[in-house]
Automatic annotation (TrEMBL):
Listed SMART domains: HNHc (SM00507)
GO molecular function terms noted in the UniProt entry: endonuclease activity; nucleic acid binding; zinc ion binding
Protein name per Swiss-Prot or TrEMBL: HNH nuclease domain-containing protein
The organism's taxonomic lineage, starting at the top: Bacteria, Bacillati, Bacillota, Bacilli, Bacillales
Domain HNH nuclease as annotated: residue spans: 176-236
Gene3D superfamilies: 1.10.30.50
Pfam families registered for this protein in UniProt: HNH
Length: 252
């Protein structure tokens, strides 16, 4: 069993940005930048580093850059100061207090250039430190967003734009992907809430209905973030449409 040591260091800020922007007209162009970059080459089917995690890394890094650019243009040092924030994140996730040995001087007159030099400084301090802490945060953001099927529907609709004219083929769904969907959906059909846990071990592979949230014929991708659990009846009713449910089993 894989475990995650979750720190929850301001990750809900990025979750909120992702959830509020995904699928809204005013953010389509911005989010399309990720989709276009992500699928410049033929994508891997069911990659272990999910498309959602790649998006979370992209979002976090973009937010830091945009905030540094805002400070550079406005001359204001606001509460969300990316250099200070990253120092705190490194302490939280890596246990390293950069500020104690930090001989890096912040030039507020050219903050964006200073921010870029700061990234280089971190990577000299420890190889890949900046990308590493971005990845640490992204894993937590992904963990939270993966629970939100409404977000996943909107997210996968955005990614589907890249494959509308060249749909992905149906491929074998790896066991780790099935376990992830079973875990998130509590072993129940997301639509009718039928308990499938007792049946799961008895069914043959071709009888287990792991369903694409955004269907392949509508551009859906073969990725763990696009798979949900459904019973046979609900899956057949859904057919090739793109659909999910916002009903969840109460914790108590």
């Amino acid at each position: 069993m894989i475990t995650i040591d979750i720190k929850f260091f301001n990750v809900y800020y990025f979750c909120h940005l992702a959830n509020e922007s995904m699928g809204k007209f005013e953010y389509v162009t911005t989010n399309a930048e990720f989709t276009e970059r992500q699928f410049e080459i033929e994508p891997e089917e069911f990659p272990k580093v999910s498309v959602l995690r790649e998006y979370c890394s992209w979002l976090i890094e973009r937010v830091f850059y945009e905030q540094a650019n805002h400070i550079a243009n406005s001359g204001e040092i606001v509460e969300f100061n990316p250099i200070s924030w990253i120092n705190q994140a490194i302490l939280k996730y890596r246990g390293t207090d950069i500020s104690l040995s930090n001989d890096f001087k912040v030039d507020h007159e050219d903050y964006l250039e200073t921010y870029n030099e700061y990234i280089e400084y971190l990577n000299r301090y420890e190889d890949g430190m900046f990308d590493g802490v971005i990845y640490d945060i992204a894993i937590e953001v992904e963990y939270i967003l993966f629970q939100n099927r409404d977000f996943l529907l909107r997210f996968n609709n955005q990614q589907a734009v890249a494959f509308e004219d060249n749909p992905r083929k149906r491929v074998y769904i790896p066991e780790w992907v099935k376990r992830a969907a079973l875990f998130r959906d509590k072993g129940r059909c997301v639509f009718c809430k039928r308990d499938l846990t007792g049946l799961y071990s008895l069914l043959e592979d071709n009888e287990k209905h792991f369903d694409h949230i955004v269907s392949l014929n509508e551009g859906g991708i073969n990725d763990v973030c696009n798979i949900q659990l459904s019973c046979q009846d609900c899956n057949l009713k859904k057919s090739d449409s793109s659909k999910t449910s916002t009903l969840y089993q109460s914790a108590y």
